[in-house]
């Protein structure tokens, strides 16, 4: 895509080298402030984290503490808690990403077709997203509460005996995931809505003229043309879900609900670092989590590059 | 005239006014007169800074300004303010508020700011971080079982007897066992407020029917495991329900208390040594204690799966003769209007001096960079006021550690609370380790295994194996202290 346009003839033969020299530094110069901040606030802390993970650093003592090499890594990789929390995190990611993509696409398609009051639907679907997590958690603890909760009450009206949404180890994570979907749906919904509006009307018209019905137009025109948005939404959701902490901590309670059935990886980091005061070990776990996320992002990168080339 | 050159982007923002000497290249970031026609970057920044300063200054004059100053800039609390952190909800929370209000009424010049945080690990996490962040409360509550960890982390101010004596807080006025527990490596770090043991509740109606009461309507003393088992069987028969109930499901701390009581009565000793670095589990006694607990649930004298609400409702509705629980549920049980009494957990085994699980709430002064003599005195005045109000606290079930209250006629007449006050002599605190104490990993791991034992999912031998493995895993973690 990038083509070098020969500007030299217009600028004159003598001015050209000086201008080029100046331009040579303009790019890096403009990037420099960002680079410095990036080094200071991203690369630096990650490197520091890596260093700390090799020490038995304590929260309550200054300094790094005794060097333990890879012992922290050995402990994390053989710890049942580490694998449990990682599995909870992955399961939570599946439970949120799939419904979020499917539901927000469906809602965006419907909202797009509405002729009047479209703004109302947009507002209504987007509204939960602006709520702070503490408000969402407060509302959903009432919805899910045992015996006095809204959900159990509503289900009992139709004769369904519901489990303890937050007290049953099998249900606590799906319950938090459902609250998360309700809360963050608006964001993916807006992304899909924007992408839908970018689909040129003439493509759809051409497909219609060629005899494609609404279902075929949806399957073979609309959904493929939303491919990039879907890929973006998916990776954003996967990364956000792998980092989940707030709503699990607030809705399921500290310690991750009954038998720790909803404890996420980040909460494990928090518990190790701040509750158990083992900062070195917490740094190890968070570095391992960082590697997992890096791997997920790399996979997404590879897949999206292949699809780009395919299209 | 110099050759025109393209100005850099930072130069364009405030173009040089005519007539002003151009700065040499490379020094363009030096201050220069702000442009008059268009607000330059600098003038905007300056205005914003002035606005912020003015705002802060103005806010400083009002009440909310101090909050803003403390929140944003970490300013010290104004003199005469006292922050106090605790972890009391429910009936305890209400009584603590009553005690705080009594202090307020007596000290109108002091602004008391109490904060109640979620019980257990979250509370200790916040207390630790606030203290490390040099913004600790003036006074805080702790469990004495957590004291060694806090003290070893240098998060507490050691208390000097000279300061304490000024306020009448002398050793002779505290329960000796709790007072001893408030020390770490020979220094006093806390002022105990109470001792709260695991106790036995009995349903008066059911026990009368079962012939377990004496003429005065009190439970006849039970001695030894055989007698206790027989009493449970008689109770179960009388009510057609359970002999005793207890909170087991999702309640590892409660399970731990029950097993720990029996283990200590059998002379099982310390469990952990070297501040938690070694496991000294007495496997034979651990298994004997487990076998007794499993026998009670196995014979259906106690349900093996029940939660806290279930235990209270079965007990208060007369479907169980006894309930094993912390004394702090006395308010809950009283509110049901059921007739009941309370005694200390009987002596089930006489291999060792009487023992029962207990812990204490105590008042501590977290380490603070800004505690001068006046602030220390204010903090101790508040502590004294709470201790003098121990009778209010005792109504919630806790046995006062403040002897002037415990020896008072008023407390000795308090029923059923005074009936188990003799439990303090056998108070067995959790073994010291950085992972032990109220609501800690130790209680979760060990209590979790007890829960499986009571639910019939582990045999006593299997329980000991599981307990040993869990304790060794905890002990193998490098200590952060």
Automatic annotation (TrEMBL), chain A:
Localization in the cell: Cell membrane
The UniProt record lists the keyword Transmembrane helix: yes
All copies of domain ABC transmembrane type-1, residue ranges: 86-300
Membrane topology per record: Multi-pass membrane protein
InterPro entries reported for this sequence: MetI-like, MetI-like_sf, UgpAE/MalFG_permease
SUPFAM superfamilies xref list: MetI-like
Primary location: membrane
Domain of life: Bacteria
CDD domains: TM_PBP2
Transmembrane annotation, as ranges: 31-51, 90-111, 123-145, 171-194, 225-245, 279-303
Keywords from the named record: Cell membrane, Membrane, Transmembrane, Transmembrane helix, Transport
Chain segments annotated as coiled-coil in the UniProt record: none
Record keyword DNA damage present: no
PANTHER family: BLL4140 PROTEIN, DIACETYLCHITOBIOSE UPTAKE SYSTEM PERMEASE PROTEIN DASB
Family: Belongs to the binding-protein-dependent transport system permease family.
Name listed for the protein in its UniProt record: Sugar ABC transporter permease
Taxonomic source organism: Streptantibioticus silvisoli
